[in-house]
Design goal:
single chain, 200 residues, mainly alpha, Arc Repressor Mutant, subunit A
């Protein structure tokens, strides 16, 4: 009996996450209510709240679940990256833009919720993904070993600057409907400017 209940709970969770992902992308995070998510998922409002702490928790889980596909893509590509450290960092962000622009309103919702003063404790905000940050730190550390990045560079500060530039460029998606290519082009200029100051 416990196995049946767990299967039902997982089924509800999956339906809610799929419904929320689509609604957040279609009409935005603020406009999407728990009631609308429950209706889209075909479950009761109570079922949503027995599975998730809040709408912010739903968003956090949506982002966490879908990020596995991004990392599969990054893991497949990063081992084949060529060129300078700067070139490789640009490539990683290009992959990220391409992935997130497939559901750009969803990612904009994630960024916006990350800066909410009422951020739920269970929410994983933008910029806290240790796996992605670790990937970039590894690239930067490799750049130090290759003599392309100054040995005295504060890699955590460089990482923060890169992540800030990456997120800032989404204003273009929100305000001008910029696509992944446009944001990648701007990000490449920003990365090259940052790396000009990192030369060994």
């Amino acid at each position: 009996m416990a196995g049946v209940r767990e299967t039902q709970k997982q089924g509800t969770r999956r339906k809610v996450l799929e419904a929320a992902r689509d609604l957040f992308n279609e009409i935005g995070y603020e406009e999407s209510t728990i009631r609308a998510i429950a209706e889209r998922a075909g479950v009761s409002v109570g079922s949503v709240f027995t599975t998730f702490a809040s709408k912010a928790d739903v968003l956090s889980q949506v982002m966490d679940d879908r990020v596995e596909a991004l990392y599969a893509e990054l893991d497949r590509v990063t081992r084949h990256l060529r060129g300078t450290t700067c070139d490789r960092v640009c490539s990683v962000f290009a992959i990220h833009y391409d992935f997130e622009c497939r559901r750009v309103k969803l990612f904009l919702a994630h960024i916006a919720a990350s800066f909410s003063p009422s951020l739920d404790a269970s929410t994983i905000p933008y910029g806290r993904n240790s796996r992605f940050k670790g990937m970039l730190i590894d690239l930067l550390a490799d750049g130090v070993e290759r003599g392309e990045v100054r040995a005295d560079a504060d890699l955590e500060l460089v990482l923060d600057t890169l992540m800030a530039s990456y997120a800032w460029n989404y204003r273009l998606a929100a305000q001008q409907a910029a696509d992944a290519t446009a944001m990648t082009t701007i990000m490449e200029r920003q990365v090259r400017l940052i790396f000009d100051g990192l030369k060994a």
